[in-house]
Amino acid sequence: MTPPALADERRMTRTGPPRGAGPAAAPSARRRRFRLLGTITLFLLPALVLFALLVLAPIAVAVYTSAFKWNGLGGLPRNFVGLDNFTRMFGDEVFVGDLRRGALLIALSLVIQLPLALAIAMLLNQRMRGRAVYRLLFFAPYVLSEVITGVLFTMIFSPDAGLANQILGLAGIDGPQWLADPSLVMMTLFLVMTWKYFGFHMILYLAGRQGIPKELGEAAAIDGAGPWKRFRYVTLPLLGPTIRVSVFLSVIGAIQLFDLVWVLTAGGPIHSSETMAVTMFQFGFKRSQIGYASAVSVVMFVISLVFALGYQRFVLRRDTEGAITTMRAQR
Amino acid sequence: MALGRRKAVTLAVAALLIGGVAGCGGGGGTGDAASGSASSGKVTVEWWNISTSEPLKSFWVQKVKEFESAHPGVTIKNVPIENEAFKAKLSTVTQSGKTPDIYTTWGGGVLKQQIDAGLVKELTTDAASWLGDFTPAAMQAYQFDGKSYGVPYDIGMVGFWYNKALFTKAGVTTPPATWTEFLDAVKKLKAAGVTPIALAGKEKWPGHYYWAYLAMRIAGLDALKQAAADHDFTKPGFVAAGTRLKELTDLQPFQKGFLGAGYSTPDGQAATVSNGKAAMELMGQWAPVVHKDAGKGLGDDLGFFGFPAVEGGAGSATDVFGGGGGWALGVNAPPAATEFLKFISSAQVHRAAVETGALLPVLKGEEDAVKDPNLSVVAKALAGATGFQLYLDQAYPPAVGQEVNDSVAALIAGSKSPEQVAQAITDTAESE
User: Fold this and answer.
1) Which of A80, A155, A203, B233 gives B425 a disulfide partner, CB atoms 3.0 to 4.6 angstroms apart?
2) Residue B189 placed within a domain
3) Cα(A145)–Cα(A207) distance, rounded to whole angstroms?
4) How many domains does chain A fold into?
5) Are B48 and B105 in contact (CB under 8 A)?
6) What is the CATH number of the domain that holds A164?
7) Residue A324 lies in a domain
8) Are residues B224 and B334 in the same domain?
9) B18: pLDDT strictly greater than 50
């Protein structure tokens, strides 16, 4: 349906200029630019209105309420407390713990989850029997909803009857208390996160890998580069843009992690797997301290924003020049 | 032609989107619409309840029909919502300044916040003729400063549900009546290789029952009331409650991995007791129902005993801790809503509801309608109660109630001392 219509439009624009050509070309060009501006505004307007209404306005409201002590009931907040919510937050060991746990999750993701995804992507890029099936299998967890994943793993990690400890029991090992041990729960959470998200990063890397021309690898092989050197000096640099985007998504995802934790542990035991988003939910919906919860959400937003802007400015900017330039720069 | 069709599709999608957004904003707003159309003789009363399971679900449907045929022009819009979803939905709606005409409430601090925000209709005069029919224990959670803002439909209490066979196996012949006897029973059960107690550590509220009951037994009901008023939980009685609870947790009486266990999940607290893997749990009157849902059920082996007395404590062993369910009216509810409340609270209708086995008596002289032997024990204990304390996470403002749950959970996990628990609750109460 779309192609013929598009072709029509193109033909029209191509036949357009001759009609307007001639002595009156200059004013018509200005008018055309003006009309173009009008068109752009008209087409942007609905998106801008929605963006302002659904994104900008809630941010403004959250920043506003974060300066009040407010239980969320009875019209607008009145009890202005300035920055009290923020000073309280940074004195609260649970919130400071949230920051520490968030950093831990980010570090683990970058050091373990993404390299694992990369390794499997490289493996599944080889010629092998059943490659499509493996790709599908590894990607499948990503398609499941977070809630279903959470319920599934609460059953797998159940202390006695759970699958994990049953299997360990067969091997004669007394399995740990995966979700009930405060010192182990973050590792369990990371395990589930990895299971859930590595397939997504794997697909990104696979797509990126397939965009690399075969000739480059072949040329390197002729020059005498072994498999590792071909990976290190040809594939990896050319995968740079993909890796940088996947790091970005991974970090932002870890900062905002909520549903998986909520279903698996509800942040427990004794706050040892709580994330910023869980703390925000606890205060907003369980304790009805909307002001404080808004302050938590504001901090979460600022952290994400600063990271996103900084990353765009310093890391992703190189990618606008294209992958080939990056390689030349490295050489 | 192609363009025309595309435009039509776009318009249809846009219409759907707008319709969807409008639909989302519409929840709970019918209160105003109902009072607006009251003049024309037709009234719609929106009724949010949590009766999503049988037998109550179809019982209410039946009663709504009966009421509607007796009151032409009145439509009761029956909206059953699952418990947790109900709480989330109601808090969203109340934050936007609206309430359904009739809705489930558990009274206490949450209801008080809604009252202070001007969202709840006072019933003291409108329902004066029939408010006296309820037992004082059942009414307590909905009364503030001598005024009534809701009526009960269910009341219950927390106590120990235990497995008689496992108690016999461990040589515990009579249910413990004092805290010392209770600790002895726990030791005997452990020695017999039985897990004494099941606890849902992930969900925090079941843990707070222990601390609350100990505080009631040691410091007494008046001290709890006073502490809430003074924002001071550091009195010796409250610290002692923590110390006594620590005596229990030091015996390691709970099932393996209890810190990660849920309540009604397949391997949770209820299932553990129901499948005979732990000897008892401290839980409300709904425990037998959940037992059947989550596990095999104990049948005749299931027994009930009240929370033991604590030697030298100020509280009486007949003071009970619990809560129930009630109905509150939105501030704009039409008179027909009050009329409907009167109907479902009438001796005839409520007695029938109690006879289904899903609710406990809230009206005076209704105890004999309870057929189940265990629930009958609960109903009699409630009828003979010398004092009543609502669940602390309901009685106090939400932040204080959650802090009680949180701190007691930390005490049970061994990361907070009794003094720190008392201090943390006090700090939160002061900041409210």
Assistant:
1) B233
2) yes
3) 23
4) 1
5) no
6) 1.10.3720.10
7) yes
8) no
9) no
Q: What percent of chain B has pLDDT over 90?
A: 55
Residue type at A270 in one-letter notation:
I
Model pLDDT, residue A320: 61
Which residue range forms the structural domain that includes residue A137? 85-330
Q: Has residue A222 been placed in a domain?
A: yes
pLDDT of residue A27: 63
Q: Report the SS3 class of residue B157.
A: strand
Contact A209, A231 (CB under 8 A): no
Contact criterion met (CB < 8 Å) for B257 and A268: no
Classify residue A34: in a domain, yes or no. Answer: no
Shared domain check, B235 and B365: no
H/E run at residue A10: helix A2-20
Would you report the helix, strand and coil content of chain A in percent, each value rounded to 5?
A: 75, 0, 25
Same domain, B184 and B315: yes
- How high is the pLDDT of residue B33? 39
Measured between CA atoms, the residue of chain B closest to residue A54 is: B21
pLDDT for the residue numbered B20: 40
Q: Tokens in use for A326? A: 């990056």
Task: Say if CB A299 and CB A59 are below 8 A apart.
Answer: no
Shared domain check, B357 and B237: no
Do A268 and B409 count as a contact with CB atoms less than 8 A apart? yes
Same domain, B166 and B265: yes
For chain B, what is the mean pLDDT? 86
State residue A253's pLDDT score: 92
What sections of A71-213 are H helices per DSSP? 84-91, 93-108, 114-123, 131-143, 146-156, 163-170, 185-210
Cα B280 to the center of its chain, rounded Å: 20
Residue positions counted in chain A = 331
In a domain? residue B65: yes
Spatial CB neighbours of A244, under 8 Å, sequence gap ≥ 6: A315, A316, A319
- HSE-CB for B106 with a 13 A CA cutoff: 21
Give pLDDT, residue A77.
Answer: 83
One domain, residues B40 and B90: yes
What is residue A322's predicted lDDT score, i.e. its pLDDT? 52
Please indicate whether, in this complex, the C-beta atoms of A72 and B266 are within 8 angstroms of each other.
no
Q: Are A299 and A89 in contact (CB under 8 A)?
A: yes
> From chain B, which residues contact A within 8 Å (Cβ)?
2-3, 6, 88, 91, 94-95, 97, 113-114, 116-119, 201-204, 255-262, 265-267, 397-399, 402-403, 409-410, 413, 415
Overall number of domains in chain B: 2
Which secondary-structure segment (H or E) carries B155? strand B151-157
What CATH number is attached to the domain comprising B235? 3.40.190.10
Probe site for chain A from B93, B258, B267 (most A CB atoms < 10 A): B267
Asked if A135 and B242 touch (Cβ cutoff 8 Å), the reply is no
pLDDT of the residue at A96: 95
pLDDT at position B224: 92
**In terms of domains, do B120 and B216 share one?**
no
Q: How many CA atoms lie within 13 A of A268 on its CB side?
A: 28
Domain encompassing residue B341: 33-156+323-389
ipTM of model: 0.78
Helix (H) or strand (E) holding B105: strand B102-105
Q: Is residue A257 in some structural domain?
A: yes
Instruction: Say what the pLDDT of residue A18 is.
Output: 46
d(CA B22, CA B27): 10
Q: Do B162 and B104 reside in the same domain of the chain?
A: no
